[in-house]
Amino acid sequence: MAEPKWKLQVEQLMACNCNWGCPCSFDAPPTYGKCETALAYRIAKGGYGGVALDGLKFILVAAWPKAIHLGHGRGVLFLDAQATGPKREALEAIATAKAGGPMNIYMSMMTEPPEVRTARIEFRFIGKRSRFRIGDRVRVEFEPMQNPVAGEDHFLIGQLPTGLFTKSEEFFSAKNFRVA
């Protein structure tokens, strides 16, 4: 039996433990030797088969002992508590890459599939002041990168013509990146 067809427009937020710009995005080694990340997604519009997923969210919290592309990662996947029944099944299929798609980049670099949990997810996609959280367990807030000499805001937009998730990406600094 063929997998249901799906298509999504998402808002993506990503924070990691490295210096600005996430070196793994450019096939470079992590700043401090290991990669620790939290990736949050909100489905702006789309569905899986006949199941509408508009507004649902998921967060992957993961760590790799070296660069992501070297594998051996582990993680926890949090699915939006608002997703129940067929919506939860569809969201899980997409978020775990069981339905294929770009999340397979992360899933294929893990030692075993991530533990899947349900959570109430807060997600605000507002440029340099974006944020996401799961109660006190996951808290990520962004701010502009600061010029270390002048103290002024730096703005970086990366053009990634071969990018899997996006062809253009805005980069900010993680003001707060906490996973408990």
Quick recap:
Helices cover 8% and strands 44% of the residues. It has 180 residues and is mainly beta. The model has no long low-confidence stretch (mean pLDDT 89).
Give the low-pLDDT segments. none
Mean pLDDT: 89
Largest sheet: 6 strands, mixed
What is the rounded distance between the termini?
40 Å
Structural class call reads mainly beta
Radius of gyration computed on alpha carbons: 16 Å
The count of β-strands is 14
Structure in words:
A hairpin with a 6-residue loop joins strand 10 (145-146) and strand 11 (153-154). The model has no long low-confidence stretch (mean pLDDT 89). The strands form four sheets. Strands 1, 2, 3, 4, 5 and 6 form a six-stranded mixed β-sheet that branches. Strands 7-8-9-14 form a four-stranded antiparallel β-sheet, with no helix packed on it. Strands 10-11 form a two-stranded antiparallel ribbon. It is globular. It is built from two helices and 14 strands. It has one domain (6-179). The protein has 180 residues and is mainly beta. The protein is 8% helix and 44% strand.
